[in-house]
Amino acid sequence: MSAMFRITLPDGSVREVAPGTTPADIAAAIGPGLAKAAIAARVDGELRDIMRPFDGDSALALVTAKDEADALELARHDYAHVLAEAVQALFPGTQITFGPATDDGFYYDFAPKDRPFTEEDLPAIEAEMRKIIAKDEPLIREVWTREQLIERWKAQGESFKAEWAAELPDDEELTVYRAGKGEDAWLDMCRGPHLASTGKLDPNAFKLTRVSGAYWRGDQKNAMLSRIYGTGWLNKKQLAEHLTRLEEAAKRDHRKLGNEMDLFHLQQEAHGSVFWHPKGYRIWRELEAYMRRAIDATGYREVKTPQVMDARQWEQSGHWGKYRENMFVIPDEVPNVEDEGPLVSDDAQWMALKPMNCPAHVLIFRQGIKSYRDLPLRFYENGCCHRNEPHGALHGLMRVRQFTQDDAHIFCREDQIVEEVRAFCELADRIYKDFGFTYSIKLALRPEKRFGTEEMWDMAEEELRNAVVAAGLATEQYGWEELPGEGAFYAPKLEWHLTDAIGRTWQVGTIQSDRVLPERLDASYIGEDGERHRPIMLHRAIFGSYERFIGILIEHYAGRFPVWLAPVQAVVATIVSDADGYAEEAAAKLAAAGIRVETDLRNEKINYKVREHSVAKVPVLLVVGKREAEEGKVAVRRLGSQAQEIMTLEDAIAMLRDEATPPDLRG
């Protein structure tokens, strides 16, 4: 008789089972309720199929729908497989590639035989998916050899899958999932895990959302594929709530509102760079002024550094080797102006537009001899940077090629790190609350590929932990969490994840504790002992970039900025032309009081004017007619309200002056 396996359950009890036993068998042995509820298993911490037999002695935790994160990941992975099966059933000859789960759904990339897929195809694909779910096909895990896989994919005309199978690591176990039984079973190469069968999915809890193009393996040189996106949930209620959130998000889309409010535009002549209109740039200027007041009050010194630096500088910093594919590289020579011959010679020296500001700030630090008494030194820059993002990745203000960071670097001694990071945590907390955000804070730990010694990383990670504790933020209230493997190649980092008005999260602020760059760029100071020492370099930002932060603010406020931040804070609109003179006088007094004001003297009905300025999201409309002109009053209408309040012009000016005061200047 084969040796029995010892399976330890979460309550500490142990069950001895024969080889071939599955987590599903143990669930059934515990009780019919658990057997029905269990959808997967964690075996020694690894999420696995519930029908996969144990390999030996194991710790077992059964997964149910109450374990929502695991359950959603499984369901979305299964929806992706069902999508691929449905597409191949409806469109024979279509090749399949990859289909992962995402944060709110799934997608699958296809190589269609005849034409790219369109959104008109989605209803038929959804209907076929529901048929497959209704068939309740078992999803069976099988281990294949590389030769078997390649032969199978080539026989089926699946050139993309065959290419991928040939390149998988030699020591990796290659698994296939079979949907259904017999010769008609549908196969896909996949690590898993999956639910036990397609019938475990709710046929009313998914929706296909859109179609886009995608390059095979993300490389523009490769074939263009059709990517079908979907959203998938555990039940119909969750799907409905998600679709409501999407609808609300669509109303808040910063690209749509940016156009309606005349804030900015983008066009192909400058891929990934923003054309700021006067109203949009006013928001930028208000943010810039706000941030300058914040950094001036906390001991930062503002600097300005070059846009272009020699490639040798980027080689020394390590960015040339780690980041070159995202850099705009330019030759340091006069280009050929003749019609014949290459534009640039083989002898050209190379330079690059800066993708970040940190190396330049080290060069400023290195000018002159620094003493331990000079530290900490805090250099701040509204630094314009360029990163060569793929065209397909660009997204309004959220993902651009040219952007300006509210960037700063603090050069400090070992004994100053915790206090500097603690002070930054308090500064970030105050700023985010001024904009109405709540947030969670995460510690991103060392990645697999990194510079520096283990001792360096141990110290840097512990210092950031200690600083968050000192700031009182390492609590459940602030969503404190550690993220293994997600640090930068040169430093661990604290991340601030903002929650907006409709519950979405945005990773924005960061501070990183870096011992690597000062070493690589030979930054030093003279210590109390008279010897040279390396400073610690803290990289930090709060907005992240002005472009993205403004995009987040537009969507957070749905364009309805608080008065202090609104590009136009008030419009004086006339009911009749007899009030034009008074409207201009009122606007002049408002402007003299520091209010950003416009007049609307057009010969249009007042309801038309109200609608137009509502679309432009003007916070306050001051309506004046003949009576208001005679009495020195205004009718105040707030954005989004049908009511109006009659008050004297002086009272309206005082009210608006108070509301137009930035939050950091109040009191």
From TrEMBL:
Needed cofactors: Zn(2+)
Organism domain of life: Bacteria
UniProt keywords, alphabetically: Aminoacyl-tRNA synthetase, ATP-binding, Cytoplasm, Ligase, Metal-binding, Nucleotide-binding, Protein biosynthesis, RNA-binding, tRNA-binding, Zinc
EC number: 6.1.1.3
Residue span(s) of domain TGS: 2-64
Molecular function as annotated in GO: ATP binding; metal ion binding; threonine-tRNA ligase activity; tRNA binding
Binding partners and assembly: Homodimer.
Family of this protein: Belongs to the class-II aminoacyl-tRNA synthetase family.
Name of the protein this chain belongs to: Threonine--tRNA ligase
Organism ancestry: Bacteria, Pseudomonadati, Pseudomonadota, Alphaproteobacteria, Sphingomonadales
